[in-house]
């Protein structure tokens, strides 16, 4: 580095050279000096509202917030003087004065930045009295719960929602003591245009935004001997649940996860990867049909429910671009209550399907009114009435909720043996597991579509151009002389860019994959906290490792999917597929 | 920003035309959102910004609804409810609070029959005949003169309950 871009500073008496333009916080970090922070989050928020990061600067009148102040030449910084420590402690006590004393009752207990900070600073009881009135808890959403009383106004959620997702569902309202995070008119986040992605919950330092907790419903079903309780696990769980159970970041724990789920009492442990392979069969054929017989292009993937809701709210005129395929979660539910129920002679009303998802939006997707394929299938056959109505998916748990249940059950996760998924909804190929990373659905679709059209396998199954965390990736494929242009986007901000192109009639693509969350499902709003880019990378590495190690790596080679077609569905895009595996979308305004 | 629905919100045609003109007038100006909101409120008979009006402004300007709501709740100047012909604003800052501004507020509220219409736990209302609006402000910044009440834009200092009653009855002459 050129020296002219370096500044001389002293941190706690020791001289360092630090890059011009760095904040004090960054300079300290690079020098190996830790400054505690609470509201600050790299690349997300710099709201400077907590005052925990204060340092003393020689010659300065008051203490300075290191997260927003830049260093200057010959700055002398002290990060650990008595004055600094006392100020930090007082700032924290002021925050705690308005904070409910409710850790035992809080979903973030033992994984809370505020709690950790208080413990680190040795704060045991509050010195100050509450100055804010208590606020109501917002439980209007199927996906996230907001408890404004636990909010420290760091603005991370507001920024993620606006900058990463371009949804702008929440903002700070009012001023002074009345300021708080709220949706439009404080209507309840479930009543406005929110995509239910849960990215706000993933960055929140406290329990002010959390996933809706559905663990007790699942415990109830597990205890109910009348129920046959089936569980399915999404591709991105196997690379994240280990982490939540104290193992290494990104640890690949497929077999242990299966055995833990059996221990908890699920009657069958199945895999969403099975229906991920099935999605490729249906979606691949849908694409080929649109390309050869005509249909709206580009076609865009539909596995990510936050993305679907985003299009419905903000681009209602473009819904025809979405593939009509249900997501793998919903295909699984529909088949569990039809194909599986029939094959095993079980009354579909007795089946409870639990999904383990990396995603808070899946909770909402499961309760969309059109997600009752099983009921519609049996209605006439079993003479069912309105009162018998049932959803295809009964409960959706995020990775975080599953970890809580494992802990509650006293499962020693790391020490468990490896077990296999049950049959017939448990087999999968390498193409399915990569659904968990951005670019994975595209890669899986190409592996199959190429072979269907060209008649021979892709020369190399690793489609590296669509891997990695680049915001928008593109590629061009040659399918027997037809050039097919594809693009892959993750985060709704990047998806918006591609949609705006479509809106203007300028999209050069035929097929687009969109995942709502940064990095794809492995970075979903229901994943373990923290989820940083380094952690996302480790989860992605494990996902591609599982793909490499699978004997079968192309969806159409999945033997159980082949059986499903021969025994039940007959052919991709056939009549039953249409009834059970495909769906329709709703044009929404801001509030619907 | 375009963070809005493509579906136009419903609003009376006359109001749409009015807002269209205002948005046009402020086009490309610095701080245009504040200007648009201010002008729209000024042109409203009861000097407030209704929900469908905000939706329409958001639709026209592309500024997300939450950002607009953030702005209108930050400045005490904006009203989200119809305002009476006269307004009585009681300061609820710390200094005024210590000097008894809560009982001043409760007094006027009872006097005008609005003691049950609360916002954030405190009376805030417009009388049914649209004559009076009573509301609070976080702080007027006149703490030395506490307690402070503003009536139709005029600031009164060291206000007592009796004095407040007199001031109110002066402007409510002719009203039952
Ligand atoms: S947010 Fe943190 S500090 Fe607050 S109650 Fe929950 S665990 Fe405790
Ligand atoms: S769930 Fe997603 S869209 Fe909704 S408020 Fe949170 S970040 Fe925004
Ligand atoms: S809800 Fe959480 S992320 Fe949002 S401002 Fe409050 S503490 Fe920060
Ligand atoms: S971390 Fe700097 S003010 Fe909160």
CATH architecture of the largest domain in chain A: 3-Layer(aba) Sandwich
- Give the SSE string of chain B: HHHHEHHEEEEEEH
Largest beta-sheet details of chain A: 5 strands, mixed
Considering residues with a beta carbon less than 8 A from a beta carbon on another chain, report the largest interface and each chain's count.
Answer: A-B, 32 and 22 residues
Strand arrangement in the largest pleated sheet of chain B:
4-5-1-6-7
The number of domains of chain A is: 3
Largest sheet of chain B: 5 strands, mixed
Instruction: State the domain count of chain B.
Output: 2
Q: By helix and strand content of chain A, what is the structural category?
A: alpha/beta
Strand order of the largest sheet of chain A: 2-1-5-3-4
Determine the CATH superfamily of the largest domain in chain B.
Glutaredoxin
Q: What kind of oligomer do you see?
A: heterodimer
Helix content of chain B: 40-55%
Look up the CATH topology of the largest domain in chain A: Rossmann fold
Strand content of chain B: 5-15%
The total count of helices of chain A amounts to: 20
Characterize the structure shown.
The complex is a heterodimer of chains A (592) and B (176). Chain A has 592 residues and is of the alpha/beta class. Helices cover 35% and strands 13% of the residues of chain A. In chain A, helix 9 packs across helix 16 (440-454). The longest helix of chain A is centred in the middle third of the chain and has 22 residues, at 272-293. The model of chain A has no long low-confidence stretch (mean pLDDT 96). Chain B has 2 domains: 13-74; 86-172, Glutaredoxin (3-Layer(aba) Sandwich), CATH 3.40.30.10. Chain B has 7 helices and 7 strands, in the order H-H-H-H-E-H-H-E-E-E-E-E-E-H. Chain B has helices at 13-26, 32-43, 51-61, 65-74, 94-98, 101-112, 161-171; strands spanning 86-91, 118-119, 122-123, 125-126, 132-137, 149-151, 154-156. In chain B, the strands form 2 sheets. Chain B has a 5-stranded mixed sheet, with helices on one face. A two-stranded antiparallel sheet of chain B has the order 2-3. Chain B is elongated. In chain B, 34% of the residues are buried. The chains are: A alpha/beta (592), B alpha+beta (176). At the A-B interface, strand 7 of A face helix 4 of B. FE2/S2 (inorganic) cluster (FES) binds next to loops of chain A.
